[in-house]
């Protein structure tokens, strides 16, 4: 029993990580039709900026408020990079899909190379508060606190995103734009501002995933974003492009499936099962769990 | 009186097809001007070019002037804020949003939305505020599409086939509403239902083969059965059945 609980909670921790990456990816694709392969870069920037800040930023550190400050710095860096990418590289290329893919793929490769050139290819120990290395006993299972932190963070982000989409003017514009972008402009709204905003939101969530993923794995390395991005894309497709709620459901399904199958089956089978799930969803329900609606 | 809109030598190519080949016409500053023509002749393309929605794989040239300025090449949201109201074909309400949210989307900073006016025209929209727009009937969706445009002041309304796919009773309701709307703002209307055209339109512009084939008084056009038939391919009384009592047309969308 305790094994099942442990697997469920670590699976949810993984799901939280996927959700943080996938939610932004899904909104960006749903609203702006941009397949952002550079999304993993935002995660890398968040992780490295947090790591850098805890060693160099005055007041920041690996513990207590210093850690919060370091993570905030990482998230801010993620937002900054995401907004710059949108304004400088993506904006001139809207509705030119192939060029977008080339630019974002190139950017993700260049970004990883840049991180490598600056801080080396080896994984570095990630600064993290002492309590995140400990475990909490839940119904007999010793669950790592870092995983619980991820779950809480993802739940807060999910709640905040839904409230934002449901209650704010920009949330309304985004939900409408996911459904019919052209008609939003035909009501006199400059929808490109909403594009920049979803990039900023996606950058923030991905950077948070980078920082908390660093805590979870205990290390930070240049390639981390890329490997998470693959599963995040799968989550987005399974959940339905443009749907935050769909991404949340799909992230939970993928995280749990992966964790349980990898434990009870031969190692690596979990990843295969995730791809199989993707294939089944694409065959039976190509629009994903939630279709192309940014539901709040 | 000077026209509210002057289209001159408008050409639109989309994906290599030369859809409009030098279209010129004017829209009177009051009343309804109707844009007629057979299917596929470029009526919708014309409206979309005016409001800046020519697709990326297409290009528009010529000139479209409103109050002196050329509209061509300006982004859609600016044109709309400048007083061009657009009610698209197939209504295009946001199906996943509530009626109230659809309306709220049209609100603009710096101007008071005219909810009184809209709810006076369409009391139904007030009552159904919390309902999802996707679950409205076709007629109600059309009311919503017109209503959200009327929340702001417009200098010209572009209305594309507002009665398409609606039941006869609803067609009459939509026509009544447009008649009242046209008392305060000029309308450029694309409409296939000739009974509605007869009721609303003062001026008519007929497109054929990518050009303007005829322009003048709508009454005059419809009075001449022979002319109507040769331009529109229908007798003035038998388009899609007898329009005045037409059965529900199959919704093409």
UniProtKB/TrEMBL annotation, chain A:
Report the GO terms under cellular component: plasma membrane
Record-linked Pfam families: BPD_transp_2
Could you tell me where this protein is found in the cell? Cell membrane
In the UniProt record, does the keyword Membrane occur? yes
Q: What is its main location?
A: membrane
Transmembrane segment boundaries: 6-27, 34-53, 65-89, 101-121, 146-165, 194-217, 229-256, 263-284
**Which family is this sequence assigned to?**
Belongs to the binding-protein-dependent transport system permease family. LivHM subfamily.
What is the name listed in the Swiss-Prot or TrEMBL entry for this protein? Amino acid/amide ABC transporter membrane protein 1, HAAT family (TC 3.A.1.4.-)
Q: Which organism is it from?
A: Micromonospora mirobrigensis
TrEMBL record, chain B:
User: Which GO molecular-function terms appear in the entry?
Assistant: ATP binding; ATP hydrolysis activity; branched-chain amino acid transmembrane transporter activity
Q: Which SMART domains does this entry report, sorted A to Z? A: AAA
Give one Pfam family. Answer: ABC_tran
The UniProt annotation puts the region (Disordered) at 233-253
Which InterPro entries does this entry report, sorted A to Z?
Answer: AAA+_ATPase (IPR003593), ABC_transporter-like_ATP-bd (IPR003439), ABC_transporter-like_CS (IPR017871), BCAA_Transport_ATP-bd_LivF (IPR052156), P-loop_NTPase (IPR027417)
Q: Which residues form the ABC transporter domain?
A: 5-234
Q: Name one GO biological process term.
A: L-amino acid transport
Asked if the keyword ATP-binding belongs to this entry, the reply reads yes
Alphabetically list the UniProt keywords: Amino-acid transport, ATP-binding, Nucleotide-binding, Transport
**CDD domains on file:** ABC_TM1139_LivF_branched
User: Family per UniProt?
Assistant: Belongs to the ABC transporter superfamily.
Protein's name according to its UniProt entry: Amino acid/amide ABC transporter ATP-binding protein 2, HAAT family (TC 3.A.1.4.-)
Lineage runs:
Bacteria, Bacillati, Actinomycetota, Actinomycetes, Micromonosporales
